[in-house]
Design brief:
It is built from five helices and five strands, in the order βααβαβαββα. By secondary structure, it is of the alpha/beta class. The protein has one domain: Rossmann fold (3-Layer(aba) Sandwich), CATH 3.40.50. α4 links the parallel β3 and β4. The chain is globular. The two termini are about 25 Å apart. It binds 1,3,4-trihydroxy-5-OXO-cyclohexanecarboxylic acid.
């Protein structure tokens, strides 16, 4: 009998200020806390039979360190760069350096907000972007990422 395939390892990274979700501008970002969002992500991961590891950091370097640490064993990443979206050159370069696909997510639709918020230097390096769906941006991105990794 064939060996079962190893479970895909997915990294979920949340950038600056996302630890304040739930109380931070709920009319824009919704009322769900970050741990509630992580719970939805973990529920879906169980349904899809993949492993997820999540991290929130307010510092770009911590996000880079986690991406570097996963270079040999992470299969794909979902990243909400938050306030690093426009100027995160380190994140942009890192996404290009790692061998696995990274999908950018935003809770809000950044294209429909202030003009300065619309340009994403991180998105330019990412495999794709999901935005404007609230917490469902994460689950939509996770479904797509797993499908891409399994089917190419
Ligand atoms: C955000 C949008 C960013 O412009 C903002 O800086 C954030 C959150 C979102 O998820 O909608 O912190 O990434």
């Amino acid at each position: 009998m064939a060996e079962p395939l190893p479970r895909l390892k997915i990294l979920v990274l949340h950038g600056p200020n996302l630890n304040l979700l739930g109380r931070r501008e709920p009319h824009i970002y919704g009322s769900m806390t970050l741990s509630e969002i992580d719970e939805r992500i973990r529920d879906l991961a169980t349904e899809l039979d993949v492993e997820v590891a999540t991290l929130q950091a307010n510092h770009e370097g911590a996000l880079l360190d986690r991406l570097h640490a996963g270079i040999d064993d992470v299969d794909g990443c979902i990243l909400n760069p938050a306030a690093l979206t426009q100027y995160g050159v380190g994140l942009h370069d890192c996404i290009k350096a790692v061998p696995f696909p990274v999908i950018e997510v935003h809770l809000s639709n950044i294209q429909a907000r202030e003009p300065w918020r619309r340009q994403s230097i991180v998105g330019e390096a990412a495999r794709g972007s999901v935005q404007g769906l609230g917490w469902r941006s994460y689950t939509a991105a996770l479904r797509a990422l797993v499908e891409i990794l399994r089917q190419g």
